[in-house]
Write a structure and sequence with these properties.
The structure is a single chain. 32% of the residues lie in helices and 31% in strands. It has helices at residues 5-8, 16-25, 38-49, 96-99, 104-109; strands spanning 9-12, 27-32, 53-61, 65-68, 71-74, 78-85. Strands 1-2-6-3 form a four-stranded antiparallel sheet. A two-stranded antiparallel ribbon has the order 4-5. It has one domain (5-109): 2-Layer Sandwich (Alpha-Beta Plaits).
């Protein structure tokens, strides 16, 4: 099945662990389409952001059984890709602070205690 490059990557994942991986190792974490493989993810990242990809790791996360008002259901699973960029390549993705309304300069000036 052939997907459009914009259908392969659904969204970027910004958790404290993924932000730390991005700062230390240059690895980005994305939620990807369930039928996407490593080659599709590599091609999509390289064409969308015009960078070189070194390595792609895929993680399939299964859904969890949850209970709400005495009714049980299974939450949907997701497929996650951890993309390592080659040395010297970077992608500037918006972080949690920018989505909450704090710009980068305000974040640098403020101290988190």
């Amino acid at each position: 099945m052939e997907l459009n490059i914009y259908d392969v990557i659904k969204r970027s994942i910004t958790t404290p662990k993924s932000i730390d991986l991005q700062k230390r190792l240059g690895q980005l974490t994305f939620e990807v389409n369930k039928v996407a493989n490593k080659i599709m993810v590599r091609n999509a990242v390289e064409k969308i952001w015009n960078v070189k990809v070194d390595k792609v790791r895929i993680v399939n996360l299964k859904g969890k059984n949850k209970e709400f008002a005495r009714k049980t259901f299974k939450s949907p699973g997701m497929k996650k890709a951890i993309v390592t960029l080659k040395q010297g390549n970077t992608i500037d993705l918006p972080s949690n602070f920018e989505s909450m309304g704090v710009s980068g300069k305000q974040r640098e000036n403020s101290e988190v205690k």
